[in-house]
Amino acid sequence: MPIYDMLKKVALFAAGISLLSFCIINNFSQLVIEKLETYSKDYPEKIYVKTDKPYYIIGEDIWYSAYLVNGINHKASNKSNVIYVELVNDQDSIVSRKKLYTNDISAAGDFKINNKWKAGTYILRAYTNYMRNRSSDFFFKKEIPIWGLKEFTQQTAIDSIPKTAPIKKESMAKRPDLKFYPEGGYLVNGLQSKVGIKIKDKKNRTRKIEGVIKDQGNNTITTFKNFEFGLGLFMFTPEPNNSYYASIQINGKEEKYELPKPLPLGFNLNLLNNGSEVIIKVSSNKNIGLKHSFLVAHQRGKIIYQKFETTATNSYAIKLNTSELNSGVMSVSLFNNEGKPECERLVFIDNPNKNININLDTTAKTPNTKEKITLLLDLKDKNGNPVSGNLSLTVNDLDLVDKHSSNENIKTYLLLNSDLRGHIENPGYFFEKENDPKRRFLLDLVMFTHGWSRFTWNELLYQPKPKQNYAIENGIIISGQTFALKQKGKRISAATKLTLMGSIPHQETAQSNANGQFNFGPFVFYDSISTLVEARVKAFKSPYNKNRDVEIFLNNAIYPSPQVTGSNIIKPNSFNNSIVTNFVEQSKKISNYNLQFLNETQRLEEVTIIAKKRSEAEKREEALNERADNNSPTHRMDMNDVLNSEAFTIFNLLNRLPGVRAFNDSISIRNGGQPKILLDGMEVEVSDITFLRGSEVEFIDILTGTSAAMVSNSGNGVVAIYTKLGNGNLLNVKRKPDIIDFYYPGFYTAREFYSPNHADSFNDFSKQDTRTTLFWQPKIVITKNSKAEVSFFTSEVKTKYAIEIEGLTTEGVPVYNFSTFEVD
Question: From which domain of life does this come (predicted)?
Answer without folding.
Answer: Bacteria
